[in-house]
């Protein structure tokens, strides 16, 4: 009898789940019928385009402004919709995440509408068709004639791209090096860490034209219809918006504007390579230094205040407060800073700069808390007893007796934390915040130079860190003599 009763319960639960599934299935057409994606764009008056501007001639930067064929197409679409275009820059492999979390309204970044991608996002009609190529060093021209010659070789491709999948599926035994930036792949190729780079033909041609020691193998891989075209990606269910964009694309195709946009992109590329000295691009680095110092300074101030509160909470006898502080410190120290920043930006929909500053500050606060707690524990217990015997309250004892002594003990550790912050703030570049690393990548994309921007950034970081180290050492000597 009990078994029968248990079986009836199980059947009831299954019936309920099947009913819910049917309800969801029936709700989908209704959702499509009431799609408001186009209306929302027109209501807010902006169309946000997500792109990774390191892929000339599709998207790249000139004078810190995004240009290229895809940007021109996006401008025409925004004009047809009667709204203003806003371009948001991020790494290629973060673009679809940005789309799904509504950070951007569409992705225009030479993206191929593969069946796998179609499962999570909607695509427009194909607006441009290009072949696939492999970039190699000129010295290897006699070795490689076809993609088949790369069997068991190390081949590079942009992470999350169609080319990455093509290498994986069609080159037997290939060891794939996936990087988020094509400029980094070019460096890897020139330094012989990889033997070739799989890229779209238009992109491969652009890079080879500006790197005389490289050449390109055209018309590579066995391509299906879905492997040779690029389209615009939208959030799933954006039926009305996709339909409106397809009308614009049909107009662009009819007027043959794509070739015009490609020609304009070619002229813009010449502007970038007219003067590729690092001094010419000094404004990029200056802007990056400004943002790096701003993020680090705000993060330090918040981190010290937060760390002090967390340390005192962990030393508190009020157990709930102690448990919360301990859980926070352990969780933050147990997860990577990059994941924390990306969760704030994508998961909680926090603006990029705010997410970057908050993520770095919250992370620093957890480490500062442990430094302060260790410093307080290092102060002899007799100091506390003497202060209390003189009638000082717990608050005054901490403020006037314990914390000043603890600060002297932990100052070297705090100094190391401040120095680390300047370098760790580079993590924010993954969500498009304009720090020094982000600007460095823009210079790489604009000049086609890989090593020189890294060298400049290294020197800048050294100057910042060396100057801060001298300042912290001076402050430490002053405290020791106080």
TrEMBL record:
CDD domains xrefs: TM_PBP2
Signal peptide limits: 1-32
Molecular-function GO term, any one: transmembrane transporter activity
Domain ABC transmembrane type-1: from-to ranges: 289-472
Keyword Cell membrane: yes
Localisation per UniProt entry: Cell membrane
SMART domains membership: PBPb
Protein name: ABC transporter permease subunit
Organism of origin: Schleiferilactobacillus harbinensis
Upper classification of the organism: Bacteria, Bacillati, Bacillota, Bacilli, Lactobacillales
